[in-house]
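re: ur question from earlier - yeah i can do the single chain one, its not a big deal. heres the input i used so u can compare w yours
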Amino acid sequence: MSRRFVLSLLALSLGTVLLAAQGGDGLQSGPKDGKFLPGPLECYILNAKHLKSKEKQAFHCLVCQYALSPAVLVFVRDRDADKEKDAVIDALLKRLEEAVPEYKRFEMRAGVVFLSPDAQSSVSNLKEDDPDKLLEEAKKRDAVYARLTEKAAGFKDVDVAVYPGDSPKGYNINPKADVTILFLWKLKVVSNQAFAPGALRVEDIDKLMTKVKDTLEPPKKKG
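and the output i got, formated as C-alpha cells:
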C-alpha cells in the first residue's frame, strides 16, 4: 500500500470526523458546542401561553424564558410553499412536543424560530418611513404571521416564533443553513447541528432525541 494512498485515506477519515462534529452538513451555524448563548433572543411568539398578558402573540425573549432549563432551540429559514420542508419540520416539532412533557422533571423546553425578512415591523425596521413601503411591509408581515399562526396552533408545548431577519444579533446563523438546531442546558450549547436546504432527515431527528435522552438520563455504567 503506497504512502500516498494511506495519506489520502487519513485525510478522508479526518474530513468525515470534522463534518460529523460540525453537524448534518458540515455547516457551522450559530454558537458552537460548549459555548454560552451570546445574549437575549427577542422574537414574536405566536402561541405564547406562558406570557402574563392575555395576548397569545407578543414579542418575548425565549432565552430569558428558558433560563437554565434544558431546551432545544430550532432556527428555520422561512420559505412559503415548501411542502417537503414543512413535513420534516413538522416531524421535528412533533417529537419535541412529545419530549417536553416526557422530561417535565427537568423542566425541558423547546422552541422554533422562523427567520423571515418579511416579518419586519416598526420595531425592527426603524429607518423606513415611506408610506407605500410601510404598507407593503405590513401586508407581507401579516401574511407571514397568518401562515405561521396556523402552524403554531398545532403545538402546545413547543414555542413557535418569528424573528424579522436572517439571524438574531450575535447568534451568527449561517445564511447557507436552512435549519440550525441547538440543544441547550444552563445557557450553554450542548450540541449544534446545521443543515443545508433539503438535508434534514428523520434519522437526524432520531439522533437529536437520543442526544437529549443520553444527556438528561445518562446510561448507567456496567459493572
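Strands lie at 42-45, 58-61, 71-77, 109-115, 159-163, 179-185, 188-195. not sure if urs matches, ping me
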